[in-house]
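[Structure tokenization] protein backbone as discrete codes

[Encoding] learned vocabulary of local backbone shapes

[Begin record] amino acids and matching fold tokens:

___
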Amino acid sequence: LYFFIVFGCLDSLLLAVMAYDRYAAICHPLHYTIIMREELCVLLVAASWLVSCGIAFLDTLLLAQVSFCTDNIIPHFFCSLPVLINLSCSNTSVNELVMFTVGALVVIFPFSAILVSYGRIGASIVRVPSTTVLRKALSTCGSHLSVVSFLYGTIIAVYYSSLLSKPNDIAMIASLIYTPVTPMLN
């Protein structure tokens, strides 16, 4: 579970870093090497790893305090945190509060950064009337946008729907999309 959370958080944070990289490459091509210097890249990746490991450690510690006394069958393909919390028979209000808060930090902030980056990319592309620029931008950003769509669409479908109600078949199938498919697309 620890590594599942680490890599899930890391995927979200690194997609935001990649969006910033795309923004710098398309909107400031002449200054790209100054903006995305090696030290900044290392810092962004290291910060993503540290945040992901810290969140996974916190969630794992909180889950260790929870007791499971009834079902031991997980109605999902993967052992994810919201599904385990739904199986608990003890008070999980602290776990749910931390999960919603951390979920907001790890999902909403990176997703917002991605939207802002692509909004600025779109605004700069519109200013240039050339179709060559549009083709280059789409070839640069198309694969990243598809991964972002898969990841965030299924995260919203799986995690937030399973927190609000019992897991269903759609959430179980959606979990197959973001776990093996998203890393393969990267």
Observations:
- The chain has seven helices and no strands.
- The chain has a mean pLDDT of 80.
- Residues 64 and 145 are 36 Å apart (CA to CA).
